[in-house]
Amino acid sequence: MSRLQPLPLCLILWTYAVGTASAQSFFPPPPEHVTTVQSKLEPGITISYKEPGICETTPGVRSFAGYVHMPGSVLADTSIDANYTLNTFFWFFESRKDPQNAPLSIWMNGGPGSSSMLGALQENGPCKVRADSNSTVLNEWSFNNAVNMIYIDQPLQTGFSYDILMNGTIDPNGGVSTFDSSNKPSSSIDWLNREGTFSSQSASNTANNTENAARTLWHFAQVWFQEFPDYKPNDNRVSIWTESYGGKYGPAFSSFFEEQNERIANGTFKVKGELYQIHLDTLGIINGCIDSLTSETGYPIMAFNNTYGIQAINQSTSEAAISAFNKVGGCKDQINNCRQKAAQLDPNFTGANNQVNSACLDAYTTCQEDIENPYLDLSDRSFYDITAPSADPFPPEYYNGFLNQAWVQKALGVPLNYTESVGSVNEAFFNSGDYPRGEFLQDLGFVLDSGIKVAMVYGDRDYACNWIGGEASSFAVQYSNAKQFASAGYTEVKVNSSYVGGMTRQYGNFSFTRVFESGHEVPAYQPETAWNIFNRAMTNVDIATGTVSTVGKSPIYSTKGNSSAFNIKNDVPPMPKPTCYVLAIASTCTEDQQSAVMNGALVQNFILMEDDTKAATTTSSGSTSSGSSAPKKGDGGKLEVAGAWAVTLSLLAGIVLLLE
């Protein structure tokens, strides 16, 4: 889901005030020491990878970063006419404990078009990036403590994934001007028009909806699980954990994978080389936007009547939004119209029917303007944390600078600059009206009835995909134990001997958890709580205590307690002071700070230096990463940023506010 916002005037006028332009090249270094494996499944498919030796520096624990390269012909089962190569980036981290016998989980951020490096470096991965944007600290609550983790940049063009590599400049409107040696522009380019190497930025060269993204990832998984030479586990269980727009990715991808397993098992799917059954174990959804019809009214409720006592809008505005949802021809009617047309004209979710796309896009736009936007227009509070300002300093964006360090890109073996959120993917999904489509609750029901565990986890300060709407979606899932799940009560999530991290409702393989004192990215705000929920779900024990087995029990495990968790109220923390990080200037800097940067204020390590500015550090505890996670000797500590045009794409992420 996107929030289209106008670019502030000071950014339109902003020139190269952050530093002095020079003849320094901003292109990433050529990949080297990369191992390439030719696929035995199909001609033209390869896996290229290397061991980066960065981020995960725990002795004896390995990681591998690389690509699965596939010809566009693998997408013959979609509506996409792909005349390009699919180069999908992954970063695989072995489990810190017994990787040979550990299960594996895929992690995907949302967007659509938001890189999963957010998860790896800002949330639940092995390290967090420090305030210098050039070194890391180990994360003691990393999801790879006992699970093999693979972070995937998808759909195509997201993060380090690419279709076609292009050298050129990108402007504030997302326009790309390519160049070669005959028309290469001067190296003195302002921050809003940066030169670098990037994917095509074409909305035609990526998945256009969630279902086609599922099909694409399944082809990736067939190659990776069968042929990546450094993953040969004894435990072949695979889980999917995702966030935000992952409320759609997770159900759709899991359902599609399970349907493919059934086709392979009964012999109705016989494509040579793609007969590997992916044994799904757990689906985890963190602050996911799942179903518009059931969750939309959660926005005005969250904005006015939340557990923190914050009235970001007044009562009349909240009531008007709810009325707008229910009125004739309003948001609800348009969502139903979208879904009716989709069922009739695009039942296979191809995204190729213009009549369906138009109806669903109209529904999305109406709901956004009438229901969701009053909070954004009136409150000046964060989209991702109602207790924070719109220029929100947390979680810190330091990984943006880190991933555009030339030495980091060299370690990862990537041939292009890093982009946190890519507009082309968002545009493709937006134009197909993907957001209000209604298949995702049905997918969840199918997944649950297939015996797959589902854990829904929601930070209670998030507005973007808030827990009120998430809870409503959990009740709307139709599956064989829906009545029993709704009857289960809330009980405390005991994180350790002295801390209760939230409230959870669980019946058998389905749980819904409200996490206290957390915004959108729960593992960043409450790392210990998030890890415990993740670990308990993955190891078949109850979310509440981690001591009760939830498999093979008779009667089926069920929590007991109050029917609602809304009665537990929270204290409002002090509102944090914005820390202006220029690589994410639209989301972290106030208008005054943006003006200061425009007027040549001092910027160090991409942070605007003000009289009372103190460079923040990551909140993770642990030992510092060593070796490669520091500036190379002899560079004087200078930050060598490969592709400072990433600033432009971060600015674009301010125009199109993505669900990360």
UniProtKB/TrEMBL annotation:
Q: Which reaction does it catalyse?
A: Preferential release of a C-terminal arginine or lysine residue
- Species whose genome carries this gene: Rhizodiscina lignyota
Q: Name one Pfam family in it.
A: Peptidase_S10
Report the function annotation for this chain: Extracellular serine carboxypeptidase that contributes to pathogenicity.
- Compartments, record wording: Cell membrane
The way this protein sits in the membrane is described as: Lipid-anchor; GPI-anchor
- InterPro entries per the UniProt record, alphabetical: AB_hydrolase_fold, Peptidase_S10, Ser_caboxypep_ser_AS
Q: Which family does it belong to?
A: Belongs to the peptidase S10 family.
Provide one Gene Ontology biological process annotation.
Answer: proteolysis
- Keyword annotations from UniProtKB, A to Z: Carboxypeptidase, Cell membrane, Glycoprotein, GPI-anchor, Hydrolase, Lipoprotein, Membrane, Protease, Signal, Virulence
Protein's name in the database: Carboxypeptidase
So which residues are the signal peptide here? 1-23
EC number, UniProt record = 3.4.16.-
- Name the domain of life: Eukaryota
PROSITE patterns (UniProt xref): CARBOXYPEPT_SER_SER
